[in-house]
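FYI - complex with zinc ion, inputs then prediction.
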Amino acid sequence: MNVRRSNRAMIDHHCHAVVGRDLDPDEFEGMISESFAPAPLGTSHWDKPVGLAIRRWCAPVLDLPKFAEGGDYVARRLELGAAEVNRRFLKQSGITAYVVDTGNRPGLLCTYDELGAAADMPAFEVVRMEAVAEEVMRAGCDAKGYADAFEAAVEASLHDRVVGLKTIVAYRSTLRIDPTAPSRADIEAAASRWLADIEATGEVRIGDEVLERHILWFGADLARQKGLPIQFHIGLGDADVEMHACDPSHLTAYFRAVEPWGVPMTLLHCYPFHREAGMIAENFPNIYFDVGFVQNWAGPSYRNVMREALEMAPFTKQLFSTDAFGLSELFYLGAMRFKNSLDSVLDHWIELDECSPDYAEQIKTWVSGQNAERIYRLAPAAN
Ligand SMILES: [Zn+2]
């Protein structure tokens, strides 16, 4: 895998693709909300840090004055067209490679290849194992054949641009689960419950804890064989996440059990459990974390989160991500806010004489890209 070298690699190790078509004002507003509902009557999703940051920082990229109103912003976006808007934000983000989770609403978003082409930078894929399980069920499978069919399908999905696996166990059964591997008989019984649920509801959505434990254990074993990392959704999320049960320390016994396998495991976003994640990354040699997504939603307060993320974790364990979904603005803003906040925290350390300028540069190089290059095996191209 080759990644073009800029001054400093900025590897967005967890993101989604963008919407390739134009968005009307309601659709745009829906994409700056994690809620599934429209804003309450008389209010707008624009009125929070992410909306304010788009008006402040993204409006000028579309040739508007800073703090342009939301309505004017979307009108200008439509005037330029989605392709031009996406090109501007992706190019100006400074991101040098994209590691894309393709398992969430693929019909709405462009492909990871199209994202890379719009950015003119390499893009890679991460396979979301829950999405594969659901495809296996949609394709038709009986309870007895489920485990083998799922395992074969995940393996078959590993083409040469796939650089990792992902699980959203946090969303589906929370992280408060039995940390052991389920038996084949347990998996068959759970698949049979799932089939009955599909029959009753007409909806194919994996959620059984036993099937999630299968994903965790099979995924770690496959990752070990193939030399891939596994990503874990942690902490905050949209309205179907039970946040209190998504503290990564619930997985401590599982982490301990698979530690000897040496599979790099990356804890995604982590907020508000980024301090727990940092400490877990200190304790386990194979565990990494990021404080992505948060920068876009916390706006100027993100530097507090970055300061806390740097409290205890090794500098060689933190990664950069935007978790951008749908809007190219979220790549641009996410990269800018991440960079500025890291600069600001480290400048403060230098001011206090706690860090040398050279070592601060080293930390930035690690966190912005070098740590991700190492664990996703994205070897920098020689230049
Ligand atoms: Zn995410």
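The mean pLDDT is 95. Residues 3 and 380 are 5 Å apart (CA to CA).
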